[in-house]
Specification:
The chain has one domain (5-184): Calycin beta-barrel core domain (Lipocalin, Beta Barrel). The chain has helices at residues 5-11, 36-55, 157-184, and strands at 57-62, 69-74, 79-84, 89-98, 104-110, 113-121, 127-130, 147-154. The chain is 30% helix and 30% strand. The longest helix is centred in the C-terminal third of the chain and has 28 residues, at 157-184.
């Protein structure tokens, strides 16, 4: 297993598939007759949506210890692509956020493994992601210890297509290798 924190995040992922990237109250409609509790939920939904929209797109960070460069692409449909620039490796996971906590929570699902971590969007436009002690099925951190700061690169639309192609090539290579191995035995 690679020692990159990106890989640690991926290998740290469990649970059911997440249908969307944001927790929401889609059945709540604004009204002058809406009870106060529903208005609060609606405000939380609007806040969640705004934070989700800030999170969508392509982010880049350098791993502090190794200096390796990595990119995270958060999509509006709850997909996360993790691209290790130096090795040209790409991984796909699903994600879900909870913006109703402080710090905000990020759940990642990859190959049946769940990673629970925390994140923040800073006033300077960076994404801070806690990567210290992040393992599969481990407890979620409650505070930032050694967050990695990601800079936003853009919306990532072109990169998503590229990453999907890299995943397809890798999958074809794995299947071809398995077929060759099976034929030799």
């Amino acid at each position: 297993m690679k020692q990159l924190f990106y890989s640690v995040l991926l290998v740290s992922l469990t649970g059911a598939l997440f249908p969307g990237a944001v927790l929401s109250y889609s059945d709540i409609r604004p009204s002058s007759l809406t009870p106060a509790s529903h208005r609060l939920k609606l405000a939380q939904t609007n806040q969640s949506r705004a934070i989700s929209e800030q999170l969508y797109g392509l982010w880049e960070a350098r791993e502090p210890e190794s200096g390796q460069l990595g990119r995270f692409l958060f999509t509006s449909d709850g997909q996360l692509y993790i691209y290790e620039v130096d090795s040209s490796s790409v991984y796909k996971a699903e994600y879900r956020i909870n913006t109703n906590t402080e710090p905000m929570q990020l759940d990642l699902l990859f190959e049946g493994e769940l990673i629970l971590t925390i994140f923040a969007l800073t006033e300077t436009g960076q994404l801070q992601l806690e990567t210290q002690e992040i393992y599969p099925n481990n407890f979620r951190p409650t505070a930032f210890i050694n967050p990695v700061a990601f800079d936003r690169l853009g919306d990532g639309v072109g990169e998503r297509k590229e990453y999907e192609q890299l995943i397809a090539i890798e999958q074809a290579h794995i299947e071809a290798t398995e077929t060759l191995w099976y034929c030799k035995v």
